[in-house]
């Protein structure tokens, strides 16, 4: 094993990509009044679909909520939480209203599969696609925040245009940044090398 980087590595391209990855921040410091163009979000979704996808099942499902659609999404999620037994009115109110924190909310789901192993693989592909969305959003100058969706229901899935059984992987808030977020500390990776 050697510490020298092979000459075939494009150091400049790698450095550019490293800078993009390090520039990505989780942030809700956004201009809530400035719209995110639908065409830009469509482009982000296309990039999500370049993530690895074993068996080419194309499991990604996308729904964009803007304007009053965000309130409808919040109402559907709150209804699902109430049906699941949540009675804390403060929690339900937060669920109803939090979707207005950014001008656009992109819901990303993983399509259902009859095979359990394929369902897991699809979820992994969708999560990998979410990272593509986040990096592309950063590259386009957008702030983003990956949120885990709360309790779901047939109403939420129908509102998103997703088939029954779709697993919600991410709710991504998107908006134009109004402030900077400091770089978080990251631990060094632990890499086990098995060479013989």
Question: Could you walk me through the main structural features you see in this protein, from its secondary elements to its overall organization?
Answer:
There is one protein chain. The protein has 196 residues and is an alpha+beta fold. It has a domain at 52-175: NADH Oxidase (3-Layer(aba) Sandwich). The chain has helices at 11-23, 38-48, 69-83, 89-97, 116-139, 154-160, and strands spanning 60-66, 104-110, 143-147, 167-175. Strands 1-2-4-3 form a four-stranded antiparallel beta sheet. Helix 2 (38-48) packs across helix 5 (116-139) and helix 3 packs antiparallel against helix 6 (154-160). The longest helix is centred in the middle third of the chain and has 24 residues, at 116-139. It is globular and about 60 Å long.
Question: What distance lies between the first and last C-alpha atoms, to the nearest angstrom?
Answer: 11 Å
**For this structure, what is the CATH class of the domain at 52-175?**
Alpha Beta
User: Quick one: biggest sheet?
Assistant: 4 strands, antiparallel
What's the architecture of the domain at 52-175, going by CATH?
A: 3-Layer(aba) Sandwich
Q: Describe the strand arrangement of the main beta sheet, using strand numbers.
A: 1-2-4-3
Number of helices: 6
Q: What is the element string, with H for helices and E for strands?
A: HHEHHEHEHE
The CATH H-level homologous superfamily of the domain at 52-175: NADH Oxidase
Residues in helices, as a percent range: 40-55%
- Average pLDDT, all residues: 93
What global shape is seen?
globular
- Over all CA atoms, what is the radius of gyration? 19 Å
Kindly name the structural category. Answer: alpha+beta
Strand content: 5-15%
CATH fold group of the domain at 52-175 = NADH Oxidase
Query: How many strands?
Result: 4
Low-confidence stretches: none
């Amino acid at each position: 094993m050697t510490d020298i980087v092979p000459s075939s590595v494009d150091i400049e391209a790698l450095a550019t990509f490293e800078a993009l990855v390090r520039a990505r921040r989780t942030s809700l410091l956004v201009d809530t009044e400035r719209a995110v163009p639908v065409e830009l979000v469509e482009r982000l979704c296309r990039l999500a679909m370049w993530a690895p996808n074993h068996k080419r099942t194309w499991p990604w499902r996308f729904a964009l909520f803007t304007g009053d659609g965000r309130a409808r999404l919040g109402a559907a999620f709150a209804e699902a939480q109430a049906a699941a037994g949540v009675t804390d009115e403060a929690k339900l109110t937060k669920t109803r209203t939090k979707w207005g924190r950014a001008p656009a909310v992109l819901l990303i789901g993983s399509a259902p599969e009859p095979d359990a192993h394929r369902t897991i693989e699809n979820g992994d592909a969708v999560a990998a696609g979410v990272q593509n969305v986040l990096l592309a959003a950063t590259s386009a100058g957008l702030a983003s925040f990956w949120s885990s969706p709360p309790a779901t229901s047939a109403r939420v899935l129908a509102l998103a245009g997703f088939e029954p059984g779709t697993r919600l992987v991410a709710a991504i808030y998107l908006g134009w940044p109004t402030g900077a977020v400091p770089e978080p500390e990251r631990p060094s990776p632990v890499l086990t090398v098995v060479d013989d």
